[in-house]
Amino acid sequence: MRVIAVPVLSDNYSWLIIDESDGVGAIVDCAEVEPVLAAVEREGIRLVAVLSTHHHYDHVGGNEALAQKMPLRIYGNADDAGRIPGLTDGVREGESIEVGKLRAEVLFIPAHTSGHIAYYFPREQAIFTGDTLFAAGCGRLFEGDPPQMLNSLRKIAELPAETRVYCGHEYTVRNLEFAQSLEPDNKAIDDKLAWARARRRDGKPTLPTTLASERETNPFLRSDVDELRASVRHLCPDAVLHETAEIFAATRRLKDSF
Ligand SMILES: [Zn+2]
Q1: What's the topology of domain 2-256?
Q2: Which of 29, 54, 55, 116 is catalytic?
Q3: 55-87: per-residue pLDDT in tens?
Q4: Which DSSP category does 11 fall into?
Q5: Active site residue 58
Q6: What is the pLDDT of residues 150-185, one digit of tens each?
Q7: Cα distance between residue 105 and residue 102, in whole Å
């Protein structure tokens, strides 16, 4: 499997995944048609599917226009059928989908939206997490609560450490600046922030990340870490902060105003 970043809108990524043995591909999230078509043409492949992670316009806004250009299967959460334009194949957790010889498992990871799903390719050790798990961050909780998001993030974080994570936005530098503010002594965060800034200066994506890296640097996977807990307690002196979910919720609130 080859994965190509297709930058769209101001800071979104569509991900073109290619089964090189068959010359077919799928696009994970399609906000804009032109950049996707250009990438498909450049690679000389046949696009057969769209894998939608959630219903926000900056992830599905191009679905219908793309489907007018070529025959496509459009996958997304069956329970979001009314919100995902052009949906042809509703899927749920436990089901799998095929793109050429590539096979993805569907994980249900609600909280950013109530119908958010991820596509996990176990053989290729890759996961597409939309707006749930970002490099060093997580999505806002528009349609879920902190325990639900924590649960969704844990479901992803339990996958093998080598798993590459492809998310929906280029937020890495800002996320790491927030992470650094909570854990100023965390060398992994310092190193990754320097690397990410250099990548952005060169106009390159900071993705994919890996779950190994996220466990070391992502404050939303580190609600059990003493230094982070102490920082959150210091910044939120009036909050009740005993349980992991309470630390997580306070971390999310701090990020909302960072
Ligand atoms: Zn979103």
Answers
A1: Metallo-beta-lactamase; Chain A (3.60.15)
A2: 54
A3: 999 999 999 999 999 999 999 999 999 999 999
A4: T
A5: yes
A6: 999 999 999 999 999 999 999 999 999 999 999 999
A7: 10
